[in-house]
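From the shared-data thread, chain only:
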Amino acid sequence: MFPQPVRRGAFALLLGIAGVAAPPDAPAFETRTAPPSARPKLAPGTFLVARRDLPDPNFAETVVLLLGYGPGGALGLVVNRPSDVELSSLAPRIVGFDDRDDPLYIGGPVPGEELYVLVRGDTPPAGAEPVFDGVYASRSPEVLERLAEERIPAGRLRVYAGYAGWAPGQLDNEVERGDWHLLAAEEDSIFTSRPRETWHRLVPPLPTQQAALGTASRRG
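Structure, as tokens:
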């Protein structure tokens, strides 16, 4: 389970959210790797891909990686919204980020003061939880600091401020309404060097586009 978050006011100031009332602590959900035969479904390791005309500006054209889902609700991270803040802005509080020019990502509209980290690798980093094969998550400051000191490259590390959260049953209702397409998560869409293209690549084509593709395929 994710450890309880540690409040770090400097992060809130850095992101320009000082003065916003601190939200309740993010719920702790048991993470588990969803077997391939069970996907896609609402479970850790699933991508939520926003439908094309989703009106909510918080989630329009987003791809969310589910980290937790259960009776207490759901929690995830938007993986395709890099901010203009570089990780070097977190130094010297976090040793190892002083020369990092890769961006801090906006993980969702809930402005928690803790940071989340996703890391890819063959073995789980100490203190991190598996999300799906090869990708691990944590919101522990100690884990983040240790990963920063190890100088893990941008192609294997993502740091997020904020998260996406749903009350019990809320995400289920949104999926039933057609707000989200469910896809099995994969590493390259999280750790891509072109995150702003991720939603456009993953969102299903419109019916007219699908028909055109089918016609072109038959002609070929």
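Residues 1-25, 27-39 have pLDDT under 50 and may be disordered.
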